[in-house]
Design the sequence.
């Protein structure tokens, strides 16, 4: 299925946000996911399906000082 992640078209077999995050090897603790301009809470990732044409923004936070 083709989706758009951070402005780039990607083909993915992932069916949920949780599967996509896992497949990308991202650390969920420091990640915010926006699906079609709606922020999805982390506890909803496993039950939130992806569909062709969805637009996701994956935002990681890093500490520093």
Sequence:
């Amino acid at each position: 299925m083709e989706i758009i992640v951070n402005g780039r078209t990607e083909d993915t077999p992932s069916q949920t946000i949780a599967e996509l995050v896992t497949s990308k090897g991202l650390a969920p603790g420091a990640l915010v996911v926006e699906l079609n301009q709606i922020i999805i809470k982390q506890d909803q990732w496993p039950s939130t399906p992806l569909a062709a044409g969805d637009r996701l923004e994956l935002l990681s936070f890093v500490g520093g000082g």
